Amino acid sequence: MMDIKREWGSASARRTGADGLKTFLRKIAASYPDRSAVAFVCIGTDRSAGDSYGPWVGSLLEERGWPHVTGTLARPLDAERLAAGSVPLPAGAVVVAVDACLGRPESVGKYIVSEGPVEPGRGIGLKLPPLGDYGIAGVVNARGAKPHWSIQSASLYRVVRMAVETADAIEAAWMGGTRSARDGRELRLTIRNEPDGT
Which 3 state secondary structure label does DSSP give 138? Predict the structure, then answer.
């Protein structure tokens, strides 16, 4: 989870809606059209409604066959894994980091996009390594005096809708934006049984 202004060192960071997110992703896809050369690092945990945005995106991308996805609902890329440095990335891949953040009430449901890394956890005082050549942060709730409570109390409905919107935008960008990424299909997520700690 990140706090908008303090977490983005890049001057290119900007707040945007769904259309701006699509434009941002189309520019990345134009520079890196080979899906196998793109890695998505989806930060967060399945133990918090708001902070599950990243793992939801990761699970949806994995379900759609993206080859390089780290951080899913089954295997979240949480603070513990980040601190341990366990982020496997393919050599030479461009990395798009996806995380949740808090912002102004009028920004909830929007996105912060940036050319440059995200710095996960700084909004709640954690010092974790920056990640990504590009960053996407979903503004899942309003910033408040108690950030842990704000992220926990985010609407799961909104978070899932934002994750689907993000995964759709990613899929459409690499398909050339010529049709809907899901072709009218409803959200489908396969839950696989995996042993704890894998």
Answer: strand
The reply to whether the predicted model has a pTM over 0.90 is: no
Q: Give 191's pLDDT tier (boundaries 50, 70, 90).
A: low
Give the pair of three-digit tokens for residue 26: 């189309």
Residue type, 144: G
Residue corresponding to tokens 């899929």: 171
| Distance, CA of 173 to CA of 187 (rounded, Å) | 19
Rounded Cα–Cα distance for residues 137 and 3 (Å): 9
Give the integer Cα–Cα distance in Å for 162 and 21: 11
DSSP symbols for 16-85: E-HHHHHHHHHHHHHH---GGGEEEEEB--TTSTGGGHHHHHHHHHHHTT-S-EE--SSS-B-HHHHHTT
pLDDT reported for residue 143? 86
